[in-house]
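Justification of computing resources. Each target in the renewal requires a structure prediction run like the one illustrated here; the chain below, 264 residues long, is used simply to show the kind of job we budget for.
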Amino acid sequence: MYLFSLIRKRTAWFAVLWLFLAAGQAFAAELRVVSSGGLAEAYRRLAPEFERRTGHTLIAGWGPSMGDTVDAIPNRLKRGESIDVVIMVGSALDGLIKEGKIAPGSAALLARSNIGVAVKAGARKPDISTVTSLKDALINARSIAYSDSASGVYLSTVLFPKLGIADAIKTKSRMIPAEPVARVVARGDAEIGFQQISELLPVAGIDVVGPLPPEVQHVTLFSVGIVAGTKEPEAANALIQFLLSPEAASVMRETGLEPSGNAR
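Resulting structure tokens:
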């Protein structure tokens, strides 16, 4: 009788364990997340820990926040790609909210980012400490590259005209679509490159000269939002809460960003 009782107890215990594991599998979700380059390095570092803690699986995609490339986040949503969460420039996300492509009330500011300057590793670093020296560096550079996203739009439409050098550097400067500017600089295709510092730092083969002078710096806000119609709203919200956590803030600082401090 004791043996049969022990067998029944163990059978019951294994049944409870199986139900627990099955329930865990049922609640585990696959989240498709598309991030722009500004938060890419921070996201790559944080994703494994989120998966470990929650059991959810993150499927990453990458694309600019704006522009005409196929991978640009607005274009992906326009053609109906299956995406649950987007991480992108805040102003571009605002546009998607107005279009009804982002779930109401789901957007949150994650971090602020400054524009930086890079040269090929080992090359002479130009003086960019003042607006005047930055202007001289641009005039004297043989070639200039900048991104097709928020930082590049600011440079080409605001900063270069403001400095009065737009025409002077027109033939030697170019906007780079669908590729990190740092890679262009690293292989020697541009003498000087501009992009978010958080996008420059992870790329080998370059030296980061520093940020733009404060008087002409342009701070880009990066935000996160849940795509309207997602089938995994709870898991998507859990990811946002994690990205707003103090732990995530620490990683963002390490990757060249200023976290928003909007912890939930």
